[in-house]
Amino acid sequence: MSSQVRGVQLARLLGQWHALPGRRRSPDYAALAGAVRGLLADGRLPLGVRLPAERELAEALRISRTTVTAAYRQLRETGHLASRRGAGSWTMLPGNHRMASTGLWIPQDDRDMIDLGVAALAAPPQLLGAARAAAEDLPRYLGGAGYHPTGIVELREAVAGAYTDRGLPTSADQIMITSGTQHALDLVLRLALAPGGSVLVESPTYPNAIAALTARRARIATHGLATDGPGWESDLLLGSLRQTRPKLAYLIPDFQNPTGHLMSAQLRERVVAAAHAAGTDLVVDESFVDLALDGTEVPPPTATFDRHSRVVSIGGMSKPYWGGLRIGWVRASAPQVQRLAAVRVGMDMASPVLDQLLAVRLLADGPAIVAARRAQLTAQRDALLDALAHRLPDWRVTVPHGGVTLWAELDGPISSALARAAEEVGVRLAPGPRFGLDGTLERFLRLPFTLPAADLVEAVGRIAAVRYDLDRTGGQRWREPTVIA
Q: Is 439 exposed, middle or buried (0-12, 13-18, 19+ CB in 10 A)?
């Protein structure tokens, strides 16, 4: 049986649903239908969910039932709603849509779209050569079964060596290779978090981490990050650990996604000590640790301060190398790695050997690849900052010194409305509420600088144009549609 969203719940998700973009003000029923489509597009309203009855939603929104009836009819016409008399209406999507890598549902024909919903770079030029070399390395593995639940030893040694170079002595037995960082997080949650367990996360945070926690039916508490300064309010973060005593805390201390904040070494040490005192395990996401910009010095790994096996570090090759190479890893104690391997065998057995050999080759050339990535990202970040300062000067942006995203504070609570408007002019955005739990963060927008500078400048121009349209109040005032029975 499908789940159901109540009228008050949908009303909360819809928020300021009247504030829809366009060169002409839409009638209320069209604005409501557009808002529901927007919730489906950014993943906050799942597919296959039964919507509230027309009368119930009308009461929750304090509008006429006629408006809701017309909105539902338009959603059925556009393929976003299926209804059956006496049974209700369920959310769906038109047949010409697909799932994007961000988790958002997008049209299949999107060649002209500037996609700012994905914070990832295209593949480096070294990848093809590394792939050919990896294929030549493959024969020595063909005599075996090909199942390596913790990963092939060459890759585990390479990852362990990278941790050791960062000042955290690590052996291959402490590394488990996974099919990406998200897979690493999922495995850790399966091992360490019982359904309904309590978890502390930052707000805002990585949307797919929220999805993984929700899938475990976790009870999620949040620690809010400041938009500027160090980001983490140390007393509040430590107090949250001591008071809520969560089973897990999921943190992104290295160029946090989406804010770009970098946690100080002092706070890392204090967080580890507080977690130990509270009986909390820390899951530390290091996806962006290689992407320091402006010569920024990255503090020691959080696990450096761990003396009680409380810190599990996860990372991968998606951000500094390529998202299409699904290679991630977990760094933990050797016994924890073995327990993770036992969990994994019931899921996917092991990562592909050829992909792992390719990863070994890329990591061997890592210093050159990462240096080029940093230079590329610095130039693209600066182009994006310049475009924003010129076209949208009222937006506040703290310059990140690493990672791949800006976290922009807008000039009003318009993030979702702006994302819907931008889609119409060929720019895909991930609105602020997607990075939180409760539909807030409407004043914020994540803007990755992973595309070429010319695309970023063009995207900002289009965004600025539709931002202007949001403030236009001219045009006729729409009345409720007349019903003739």
A: middle
